[in-house]
Amino acid sequence: MPPADPDRGSGADQPGATASGQPADRAADETASASDDQLAAPQLHPGLAPLRFLLGRWEGAGVVGYPTIESAHFGQEVSFSHNGKPFLSYTSRTWLLDSDGTIGRPLASESGFWRLEDDGTLEVMLAHPTGITEIYLGEVTGTKIEMATDVIARTASAKEVTAGRRLYGLIGADLGYAYDMAAVGQPLQAHVSAQLKRTA
Questions:
Q1: 158 and 189: one domain?
Q2: What is the pLDDT of residues 43-71, one digit of tens each?
Q3: What is the pLDDT of residues 129-187, one digit of tens each?
């Protein structure tokens, strides 16, 4: 066997070659292809098909009121996403709107997961930074969703919320919803409503 030529080096040192000896442009193409596969959006889990209409980011405005607070207008952003598994990830944040539409201070936020059981029952788990967690049970009828609280858990410092009911549905291309709440000694009644437009 002839001695190695120190001036030649290995194939990896040659212009246009990789450590595996394949052309650099081919290796780059394969790497890009692998990256594209990793970045490709996952397929929606078949069990979530009835909730497909919720997917995306929605933004709009609504009204909040209750016997214990002053009514106000607010802005809201809601997001529904998925990673291919049998649940939707959900986030919502709201902010006060002045009478001229100027954005004011942050208001409520919540996040959680939506999933459908084999029998069609909708289960929604929500957490609030104010020390409240909720589990809703409901049903999906076309592009209309109705649900009510099954369990509410609160920390010692949280507001006394005892029941909730939510209605979501498409109004044309918009997402409308209403939230009724029983809290601080008040019976279940209208609390929040909004109409949101899809932005992504």
A1: yes
A2: 999 999 999 999 999 999 999 999 999 99
A3: 999 999 999 999 999 999 999 999 999 999 999 999 999 999 999 999 999 999 999 99
Structure tokens given for 125: 């788990």
Specify whether 53 is located in the same domain as 21. Answer: no
Q: Looking at the structure, do residues 113 and 63 belong to the same domain, yes or no?
A: yes
Query: Do residue 100 and residue 20 come from a single domain?
Result: no
Kindly state whether residues 30 and 84 are assigned to the same domain: no
Could you give the angle at the alpha carbon of 84 between the alpha carbons of 82 and 85, nearest 5°? 90
User: How far apart, in whole angstroms, are the C-alpha atoms of residue 103 and residue 95?
Assistant: 7
Enumerate residues 6+ apart whose C-beta is below 8 A from 144. Answer: 167, 168, 169, 170
CA-to-CA distance for 21 and 179, rounded, in angstroms?
63
| Count of domains for the chain | 2
> Of 123, 112, 116, whose CA–CA distance to 86 is shortest?
116
Residue type, 198: R
- Containing structural domain, residue 17: 1-40
User: In whole angstroms, how far apart are CA 43 and each of 51, 83, 86, 135?
Assistant: 14, 8, 11, 26
